[in-house]
Specification:
Layout (H helix, E strand, L loop, with lengths): L3 H10 L4 H12 L8 H13 L3 E6 L7 E6 L1 H12 L10 H12 L4 H25 L5 H28 L1
Antiparallel strand pairs: 1-2
Helix pairs in contact: 1-4, 2-3, 5-6, 6-7
């Protein structure tokens, strides 16, 4: 998804310039959300403007260069509504790890057990990082906690699935 649709959503709330949008993402989702760099924000804003989803107006500033304030267009609002109304992707049937797990051993370049062990260690490391992030996030930051909890539940499901693959394939 990137930042394209979240930026549209923030602009639906109110017009803003790039730094305000970056701050709004950070304030809304806290440390749980991997904040994009400002360059990515401005590149995305340029593409959204080119696509007709937003428009920019130069605002004069007395002691600084003019800044661009971005507004959502009707086309942008329609794209945002379509995003909000549409379902997200479901199960990953083209899971890259599973392709690796099945195909790499066929070629003799990898061992299934080793692949599963490595991926399990990686997921457990991510789980530890998320647990630490949860402990260091303000208890009042509900959005961040829900985002972290969702990521942890997905990781737990992936760990359970890896165990199932170990039982079935090794």
């Amino acid at each position: 998804m990137g930042v394209r649709l979240p930026l549209l959503a923030l602009l639906a709330k109110e017009p803003a310039h790039g730094y305000e949008l970056k701050q709004a993402l950070e304030q809304t989702f806290g440390a749980a959300y991997p904040s994009p760099n400002i360059g990515q924000i401005y590149v995305t804003l340029g593409r959204l403007e080119k696509d007709g989803l937003i428009r920019a107006v130069a605002v004069e500033q007395s002691s600084r260069p003019n800044k661009k304030v971005y507004f959502l267009t009707q086309q942008g609002r329609e794209a945002l509504i379509a995003w909000a109304d549409g379902p997200l992707e479901g199960p990953r049937l083209r899971d890259e790890f599973f392709m690796k797990l099945v195909l790499a051993p066929m070629t003799g370049i990898a061992d299934r057990g080793a692949l599963i062990n490595r991926q399990t260690r990686h997921f457990l490391g991510l789980m530890r990082e998320l647990h630490h992030l949860s402990e260091t996030t303000s208890p009042d930051d509900r959005y961040a906690h829900l985002l972290i909890e969702g990521a942890m539940l997905h990781l737990q499901a992936d760990l359970d699935w890896l165990e199932r693959c170990r039982e079935e394939l090794t």
